[in-house]
Amino acid sequence: MPPTFLYYALLTLCVLLVVGLTWSALRRPNRQRLVLRLLAGVLAGAGLWLTAFPPSRSVPGSPYETILLTENFQPDTVRALLRRLGPATRLWRTHAVAGADTVTVANILQIREQQPSLRRLHVVGQGLPVADLTMLGPVRLVQHAPATQAGFRTANWASRVELGQPLEVAGYFDNLPSKAGDNAPTWIHLRAVGAPRDSVRLTSGRGAFRLSYVPKAAGLAVYELIARRGGQILATEPVPVEIVPTRALRVLLLASTPSFEFKFLKNQLGTRQHAVALRVGISRGLTQTEFLNQSTHDISRLTPALLARYDAVIADVGTLATLSGGEVQQLTSALRTGGPGLIVLADAAPLPRLTPARAAFSIVPVATAASAKPQPVVWPGAPGRTTATVPATLRPSARLRPIITTGQGQAVVASQRLGAGTMVVSVLPETFRWALQNDSLTYNAYWSRLLTAVARPEPVTAAWRVTTAWPRPNTPVELQLTAASFPATAPTVQGAAAQPIRLAMRQDTRLSEWNTSQFWPDSAGWHRVTLAEKAAHSFYVFGGQNWLGPETELRQQAAQAWIADASASVAASPILTRQAWPAVWFFGLFLLGAGFLWLEEKL
């Protein structure tokens, strides 16, 4: 580059400065420290000049390789790479990395544009976002992962939970090796509504865990997963979940005789706003009917029109024994074609001969003395310790899926798929006693579990799904809409405080019912996507420091296709690059010379 006006102007200024300081030192009557004064004047002028125009040197470095700093990078790894590749190797950093000593880049394309000869990219730290990997092109990737830290490596939970159903959080916690003699275990807590709700003890300090909690209110909630050891918090992560109201079901109850079991069940379902119809046999040819939350209609016989009105049928074995062959056929046909599911309340005797799927449910009576004593019964998400009288159990088979079991693992409630529907058989005869004991939580959870297993699937006209794992701010989040037709109006998405943003939808080439769109959130927290005349959907965007363990695993797995052998040489050898000496060194010379002249005047 040819010299500029500033170059000559500053050179003239520095020469005049040295000449002036020299002339002033020579004219001074006091000849003490004259040599030092002359030397200090030269240092001040030269230091000022070299600060603006520092000299350069030849430094080895490869124009074919570069280093990108990402979150949680290790400085020792960077120093080792620079020693191997050469000090002149260029350094870049992402927006998430703080610092002013390297150039910030928005994406890989910016690096490739400024360094066209790039052949290999060394990524230090957490790694590249999955969306940026496609920008690598012919550039090979070398991943330098950060050191292992204590934290949650994996975690899974349902983002939407129906009120009354358990939220189950499962994952794996990885802790650093403990000090010698320190065998304190790690406790994993699920904190909800301001208090710990469930916990598990990891004896070795690391391992898999499973926690559960039954939400008490509908709405959007952010629970916490906390890891403690010896009173110290090792890690804290958010667990966002949307608790949706209980679906209002239409339930048909068929009892052969009046009983407390059906009376309490009818009242409980009606209180929870389910539409209930009850038919109770009084004597031969005489029945009594009741209707809750719906209008009255004929339920004396099981017909296709009647079964089409309901989502679930609950009947005892006495009712099934009195059904005609035509009614049983209609019930079986409705089950197989996705109609209402069937719950059979059985006893210790075999099921009636015409019961649908009778061969799959083999009932094993329990000894009389054992059946009179309450036994523990368990199921996932059960609220505390639960006991009930167990007159019989269900023999296990490949076709049955246990829903409720005893403490010894014997099934007392089990289900089987029958075509497009589900049938459940229960041998617990007196669950109403939970309601009598004011244990409504257990009673509601039990029947909610059974009805959820058999209820007719709710028709869905449109459904949203976030296909991006662990959504984060300033990274693309893909939203997928499943609908029968392409939306006529553009959907909108909105964060907690931002203005609604219209989404551009495109039809997926793999399936015509799928329509996808990309959204770039600018903040963490709950977001809501809506579409005119369609159901809305809420999803959570995690903060930049949330769930780094799973995010790192995801990035490293996605990068496998681009990862190159770090020991292999690139196509060309490193070259010598002219690099300026640090200007701060020469500014120090200027301060040294000027400081000596000022101090010497005071002596």
Q: How many DSSP E strands? A: 35
Total helical elements:
13
Task: State the helical fraction.
Answer: 10-25%
Gap from first CA to last CA: 46 Å
What best-fitting shape do the alpha-carbon axes yield? elongated
Largest beta sheet, briefly?
10 strands, mixed
Radius of gyration (CA) equals 37 Å
Structural commentary:
- The chain is an alpha/beta fold.
- It contains 13 helices and 35 strands.
- The strands form 8 sheets. Strands 17-16-15-18-19-26-25-24-21-22 form a 10-stranded mixed β-sheet. The chain has a 5-stranded parallel β-sheet with strand order 4-3-2-5-6, with helices on one face.
- Helix 1 (5-27) packs antiparallel against helix 2.
- It is elongated and about 135 Å long.
Give me a quick take on this structure.
The protein has 603 residues and is an alpha/beta fold. Helices cover 25% and strands 32% of the residues.
Short key terms for the protein model shown above:
603 residues; alpha/beta; ten-stranded mixed β-sheet; five-stranded parallel β-sheet; 13 helices; 32% strand
Summarize the helices and strands and which ones pair or pack.
Layout: H1 5-27, H2 34-52, E1 56-61, E2 65-69, H3 75-85, E3 91-93, E4 103-104, H4 108-114, E5 120-124, E6 140-144, E7 151-156, E8 160-162, E9 167-174, E10 186-192, E11 195-202, E12 207-213, E13 219-229, E14 232-244, E15 250-255, H5 260-271, E16 275-283, E17 286-292, H6 304-308, E18 312-316, H7 317-322, H8 325-336, E19 341-345, E20 363-365, H9 368-371, E21 375-378, E22 387-388, E23 392-394, E24 401-406, E25 411-418, E26 421-426, H10 432-436, H11 440-454, E27 462-466, E28 477-483, E29 492-494, E30 501-502, E31 506-507, E32 514-519, E33 525-530, E34 537-541, H12 548-558, E35 575-580, H13 583-602
Parallel strand pairs: 2-3, 2-5, 3-4, 5-6, 8-14, 15-16, 15-18, 18-19, 19-26
Antiparallel strand pairs: 1-35, 7-9, 9-12, 10-11, 10-13, 13-14, 16-17, 20-23, 21-22, 21-24, 24-25, 25-26, 27-28, 28-32, 29-30, 29-33, 31-32, 33-34
Helix pairs in contact: 1-2, 2-13
